[in-house]
Amino acid sequence: MHTVVERELELKLVLSPERCVPVPARLTYRGDDAYAVHITFHIGSEQPVHWTFARELLVEGVFRACGEGDVRVWPTKDGGRSVIHMALSSPDGDALLEAPSTQLSAWLERTLRAVPPGTESEHLGFEAGLAELLAPAPADGLHGRDPSPALGGDGTRPVEESKDGEA
Prior knowledge:
Largest sheet: 8 strands, antiparallel
Strand order of the largest sheet: 4-3-2-1-8-7-6-5
Shape: globular
Helix content: 10-25%
Structural class: alpha+beta
Radius of gyration: 28 Å
């Protein structure tokens, strides 16, 4: 079964402590990519902006500051309301986004019910892919034939006799 958990959510792009701009976003979680969350930002450009990072990072970030480098997440209060901050860094620039804690947490809870932590690998299809890779297949015309003509039918090499008649 292919699991998808999505939610449209309005985030805020924090430009300064006094100024924020609304940013429509789509949060997506897919069972076939069970370790990751995907966020698509619709920022009015020709193409939306996509970010993918570990679900575990977002789950932990709801409770405490975590992450380093390109993605950092932490909970905070803003005017008495609980919010989650996501700091994203790329070669194209940096962004500080703010998500409503209640709505983000509810979406994350749905992903955790769909694919509980510790069961992610069961949803990735590794076993089917591995079985396909290891399945015998006719390759280069050798399937069903002895690949080594130097070996006899019983797998042994024929013994050559020396000139003096000894083997």
